[in-house]
Amino acid sequence: MDELQQPPRESSSNAVVFHVHGVTKIYQMGEVQVPALRGIDLDLYNGEFAVLLGASGSGKSTLLNILGGLDTPTEGHVLYGDRDLTRASEKELTAYRRYHVGFVFQFYNLIPSLTARENVAVVTEIAKSPMQPEDALQLVGLGERIHHFPAQLSGGEQQRVAIARAIAKNPDVLLCDEPTGALDSQTGVVVLQALQRVNRQLGTTTAVITHNAGIAQMADRVIHLADGRISQVDINETRVDASELSW
Ligand SMILES: Nc1ncnc2c1ncn2[C@@H]1O[C@H](COP(=O)(O)OP(=O)(O)OP(=O)(O)O)[C@@H](O)[C@H]1O
Ligand SMILES: [Mg+2]
């Protein structure tokens, strides 16, 4: 979809990248309806670092998956730039995910038989204007480890390879679901520093899901979810550097 190829990145720094309006999501489980989102209105801005905070089951992953074109809402609209993702075909959503969105999940999903560099190259080979895998790995502090296999890397290092893989295709948005969920505090901080560096140096609009309120201090905005609704939005006047966080 040509229109979905238009990145909102060129626009001014407070331009809206995502405009989410009236989004509900109900999962149908046989006879039972599970409401995951109950009316979400939210704008995400170009280049911002947003943290989504909320209890288990509050709808964080559902919302992130809808933003990333991995899932579709039951009702409502999600505009990416001026394109409505809820009206996009499967093919258009595939192109959207491929060219515009980087995903990072709690479990790194690296290919064990490939080196760090090769794991990143798998993605850059199908991207339109990718970074060099080496540069992406350098950016997350793994420039010295490019020829190592996942089994030769710690959990935090593997997660940084996953971040390098997500950013190497130069996505406009980076969506991270509990990226430090499997890591201890010290290792988690190194991973968050990598996300912070990507956000600052490349200007990638970044949304990070966490259970961990401590992480919220590094965000521009903290979006609280409770029971499928946005219960509160906090703006941090100053962002705490990721290196100063602990939990
Ligand atoms: N594929 C699905 N099928 C049925 N119900 C689902 C599905 N995905 C999520 N849900 C339900 O939707 C609600 C919100 O789930 P979601 O995964 O978005 O929560 P979350 O905030 O990410 O939680 P956690 O912190 O545990 O990851 C929950 O009640 C969950 O059981
Ligand atoms: Mg979740």
Protein described:
The protein has 247 residues and is an alpha/beta fold. It has a single domain (3-244), classed as Rossmann fold (3-Layer(aba) Sandwich), CATH 3.40.50.300. 27% of the residues lie in helices and 28% in strands. Strands 6-7-8-3-9-10 form a 6-stranded mixed sheet, with helices on both faces. The protein has a 4-stranded antiparallel sheet with strand order 2-1-4-5, with helices on one face. α3 (116-124) crosses α4 (133-139). The longest helix has 18 residues, at 185-202. Bound molecules: adenosine-5'-triphosphate and magnesium ion. Adenosine-5'-triphosphate is lined by residues 27, 29, 34, 36, 54, 56-62, 211.
What attributes characterize this protein structure?
247 residues, alpha/beta, Rossmann fold, six-stranded mixed sheet, 6 helices, 10 strands, binds adenosine-5'-triphosphate, binds magnesium ion
Amino-to-carboxy terminus distance:
43 Å
Find the structural class using helix and strand composition. Answer: alpha/beta
- Please identify, by name, the CATH architecture: 3-Layer(aba) Sandwich
**CATH homolog superfamily:** P-loop containing nucleotide triphosphate hydrolases
Oligomeric status: single chain
Give me the strand/helix succession: EEEHEEHEHHHEHEEE
Instruction: Please mark out the parts with pLDDT under 50 across 5 or more consecutive residues, or reply none.
Output: 5-12
Per CATH, what is the topology?
Answer: Rossmann fold
Bound molecules: adenosine-5'-triphosphate, magnesium ion
Strand order of the largest sheet: 6-7-8-3-9-10
Query: What Rg do the Cα atoms give?
Result: 17 Å
Question: If you average the pLDDT, what whole number results?
Answer: 93
Molecular shape: globular
Number of helical runs? 6
Largest sheet: 6 strands, mixed
CATH class: Alpha Beta
Number of DSSP strands?
10
Count of distinct structural domains? 1
Strand content: 25-35%
What is the share of helical residues?
25-40%
